């Protein structure tokens, strides 16, 4: 099927944040051949190329995009047993939570704590999507991607993907080099759910689920996310966002110790209180971005014109209606500056910025 190229195509409706100008050119692709054709089309016209998935983790410029937006809509899921696992291969355009629901229904463990996350399969290895104690990099067996430098289809093993906290080679070292076409996950038939996250464990205990099933963990995770407005719900006034806007900072343990000492000296901490911190390996710890934001003086529901912080979670920046990308960026800069000035910690944004920058 030939490409259907549209001009001045509105992008804001394709983003969960609901901001951004039009694409100079836009095409929706449903096959690998169409992906290659779109790449060739953009190159022949010397236009930049941006790959759009579910739009749940992007901030689009008010000026729009000057090149071709390739909207990935490939579909298909296949599975096969491999040893004591089952390998599930999904096309990049498959909705992520549909895949998680299917895996849980089959009794395949490995992604149950990643329930309720919006977006498409193709984004999961790029971001190394994680939540409630699981990261997708733990289960990715391989990624098939089009190498834009060589034009070849490459099959990258999990080790070759360079997974780190909310990071991968696709996002950092080789940003813009690959278009993820499909992902294979190694799941465990009959495996137990991963209950590593304290908040999840407490909620399961409250529900008297001592040995929960995969389905019960999925249901509980979605409930926790819903309470924080971290699921797509058109009736939720906090849902027009990209979810968590900043990642949790990872710092040397000594830096975290010095920060706690200074806060205790300044009387910021209550009796017996410690700033949240979690082991991050190699002498480092992970701090809570939400805690830092709140202690910098920005509360849930903080408003700045047509944007604000979620009333349920300070990590989410919400379009309250009619906001522009510039409004989102201005609030994000305010949040980052407050935390930097108060704690000397620089927050790193989680979403992808398209033709706009936080700096």
Could you explain the architecture of this structure?
By secondary structure, the protein is of the alpha+beta class. Helix content is 25%, strand content 26%. Strands 6, 7, 8, 11, 12 and 13 form a 6-stranded antiparallel beta sheet that branches.
Topology, element by element:
Elements (H helix, E strand, L loop, with lengths): L5 E5 L11 E8 L2 H13 L4 E4 L5 E3 L4 E8 L4 E6 L2 E7 L4 H11 L1 E2 L13 H5 L2 E2 L2 E2 L4 E8 L5 E5 L20 E12 L8 H9 L7 H14 L22 E3 H13 L11 E5 L2 E4 L1 H7 L7 E2 L2 E3 L7 E3 L5 H19 L8 E3 L5
Parallel strand pairs: 2-5, 3-5, 4-20
Antiparallel strand pairs: 1-2, 6-7, 7-13, 8-13, 9-10, 11-12, 11-13, 14-16, 15-16, 17-18, 18-19
**Low-confidence runs:** none
Total strand segments: 20
Amino-to-carboxy terminus distance: 41 Å
C-alpha Rg, in Å? Answer: 21 Å
Quick tags:
single chain, 359 residues, alpha+beta, Uridine Diphospho-n-acetylenolpyruvylglucosamine Reductase, domain 2, Uridine Diphospho-n-acetylenolpyruvylglucosamine Reductase, domain 3, Uridine Diphospho-n-acetylenolpyruvylglucosamine Reductase, domain 1, 3 domains, 4-stranded mixed sheet, 8 helices, 20 strands
Short overview:
This protein is α+β, with helices and mostly antiparallel strands. 25% of the residues lie in helices and 26% in strands.
């Amino acid at each position: 099927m030939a490409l259907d190229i549209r001009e001045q195509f509105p992008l804001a409706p394709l983003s969960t944040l609901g901001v951004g100008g039009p694409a100079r050119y836009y095409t929706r692709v449903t096959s690998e051949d169409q992906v290659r054709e779109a790449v060739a089309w953009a190159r022949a016209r010397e236009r930049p190329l941006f790959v759009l998935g579910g739009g749940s983790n992007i901030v689009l410029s008010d000026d729009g995009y000057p090149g071709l937006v390739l909207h990935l809509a490939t579909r298909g899921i296949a599975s096969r047993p491999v040893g004591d696992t089952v390998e599930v291969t999904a096309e990049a355009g498959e909705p992520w939570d549909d895949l998680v629901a299917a895996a849980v229904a089959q009794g395949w463990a490995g992604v149950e704590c990643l329930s309720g996350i919006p977006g498409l399969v193709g984004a999961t290895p790029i971001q190394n999507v994680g939540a409630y104690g699981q990261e997708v990099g733990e289960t990715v067996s391989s990624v098939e991607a089009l190498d834009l430098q060589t034009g070849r289809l490459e099959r990258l093993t999990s080790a070759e993907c360079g997974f780190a906290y909310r990071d991968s080679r696709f996002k950092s070292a080789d940003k813009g080099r690959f278009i993820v076409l499909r992902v294979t996950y190694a799941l465990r038939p009959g495996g137990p759910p991963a209950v590593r996250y304290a908040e999840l464990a407490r909620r399961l205990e409250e529900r008297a689920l001592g040995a929960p099933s995969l389905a019960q963990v999925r249901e509980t995770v979605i409930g926790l996310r819903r309470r924080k407005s971290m699921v797509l719900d058109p009736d939720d006034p906090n849902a027009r966002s990209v979810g968590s806007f900043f990642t949790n900072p990872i710092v040397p343990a000594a830096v975290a110790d010095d920060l706690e000492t200074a806060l205790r000296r300044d009387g910021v901490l209550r009796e017996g209180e410690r700033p949240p911190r979690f082991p991050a390996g190699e002498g480092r710890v992970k701090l809570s971005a939400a805690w830092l934001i709140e202690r910098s003086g920005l509360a849930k529901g903080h408003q700045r014109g047509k944007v604000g912080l979620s009333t349920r979670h300070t990590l989410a920046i919400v379009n309250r209606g009619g906001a522009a990308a510039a409004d989102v960026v201005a609030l994000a800069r305010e949040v980052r500056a407050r935390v930097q000035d108060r704690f000397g910690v620089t927050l790193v944004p989680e979403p992808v910025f398209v033709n706009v920058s936080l700096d």
